[in-house]
Amino acid sequence: MPCSSMESVTLVSKCSIFPSQKSCLSDLKLSVSDLPMLSTHYIQKGGLFTRPHLSITDLLSLLKRSLSQTLTHFPPLAGRLLTNTDGYVYISCNDAGADFFHAAATHIFIRDVIGPIEVPDHVKEFFAFDRTVSYQGHFKPLLAVQVTELADGVFIGCSVNHAVIDGTSLWNFFNTFAEVTRGVKRIKRQPDFSRDSVLISSAVLKIPSGGPKVTFSLDAPLRQRIFSFTRESILRLKDKTNNSNMGGEIDIAEVMGKQSNDPLKMIEAVTEISSFQSLCALLWRAVTRARKFHASKLTTFRMAVSCRPRLHPKLHPLYFGNAIQSIPTYASAGDILSHDLRWCAKQLNKNVKAHDNAMVRKYVEDWESDPRCFPLGNFDGAMLTMGSSPRFPMYDNDFGWGRPIAVRSGGANKFDGKISAFPGRNGGGSVDLEVVLAPETMDGLESDPEFIHFVTPN
Q1: Can you tell me the distance from the alpha carbon of 173 to that of 76, in angstroms, rounded to the nearest whole number?
Q2: Is the distance from CB of 130 to CB of 86 less than 8 angstroms?
Q3: How far apart are CA 372 and CA 67, in angstroms?
Q4: Keywords, A to Z (predicted)?
């Protein structure tokens, strides 16, 4: 991170942090869920905190010490990627260390981070390894932690190789880092490093000379906003989705009577749409309107789902690595906008429900027949890609002086149509959506009556 007078954030120091105990973990082979991520940027996520009652020197010493202790529980994050002579890519748990950055932005206040309608550009500078492609983990640390001093707070940002970790594993690491910092001696959520599932394959991903490149434009103009939805708003949205065209509450007896000769239709009629699927449908409809497509234009909504509970036998809930697959749902712009919210949500619901053990294994087989990196982006202008999850424990990170005020991401993997779901800080089912769109599309979304009706005013 170069330092100049034009930058909001100044790099003060950088050092390497090594595990407090040497690793005895063998090399971990990258899975069919890991390998496609070699062409994506490092994941960048972090928390904004009030300033602790410690000097910055004492705070940095505390965080460095606890990071060293945490890496003992997560030895892959102190390792490097290696490719053997057969072309298989591994994580070498060689204790090569993680990077630790101290940066200063003491002219920036907490209100300057969370107050603006749009996510300010200086948030990107709270993270190291900006725009670093995960393949570079062969030559760079797999983890970098940056602690940025603000005028009245501190931001702790993690940049982690996406071929090594997904959201579930990232937040388990971040939460453990916080626990160790505040003095917890016994770690309850130990990661599982097993490599004995169907995700471990003999297929070889052929890497182009010089390594893979990201598959989306890095220079396209974008706007980025956080839209917040309260628990009450989400419940109203879910109720609207499930009861639209039903005249109020669903009468199960009436539905069964009308559909008694067609059990499949009866089951479909009483399917409950989840809160999150309702929210996704709301966004899909609003963005489709904002993009002003012809009715025949095919649109795509991609949702990342975890394979951990879907596989049989199930993966450990704290399986370390990527265990996600991206489910596309397709619908024409005309169908999305001529049908109601429930119809749109049901398309998403059907695909998520269908993604069972057999479907996870089919995705694995399809990848094995054509190993490739994941094509992340919005290639036809009609795609939305939902990542992260409001179920992740992002606000469980108490380093000893309180929970985060806000959670933010860096500039990694941002393109028109990239959405990330965060839990709301107040919990209870509240949700924040980090929405990245082309400027004219964001303008349309901000003025969409159906969408804005459910959004919490700034």
Answers
A1: 11
A2: no
A3: 34
A4: Transferase
Burial bucket for residue 183 (CB in 10 Å: 0-12, 13-18, 19+):
exposed
Per the CB < 8 A criterion, the answer to whether 429 and 235 are in contact is yes
Cβ contacts of 257 within 8 Å, gap of 6 or more: none
* DSSP output for 167-210: HHHHHHHHHHHHHHHTT--S-SS--B----STT--S--PPPPTT
Q: Using CA atoms, how far apart are residues 322 and 80, in angstroms rounded to an integer?
A: 16
Answer for the pair 405, 48: CB distance below 8 angstroms, yes or no.
yes
What are the CB-based long-range contacts (under 8 Å, 24+) for 354-361? 355/305, 355/310, 355/325, 355/327, 356/310, 357/310, 357/311, 357/312, 359/310, 360/198, 360/307, 360/310, 360/311, 360/325, 361/198, 361/311
CB 289 within 8 Å of CB 280: no
Task: Judge whether 162 and 171 are in contact, CB under 8 Å.
Answer: no
**25-42: per-residue pLDDT in tens?**
999 999 999 999 999 999
As given in the structure block, the two tokens for residue 343 are 């119809």
Judge whether 45 and 409 are in contact, CB under 8 Å. Answer: yes
Is this prediction's pTM over 0.70?
Answer: yes
Percent of the chain residues topping a pLDDT of 90: 90
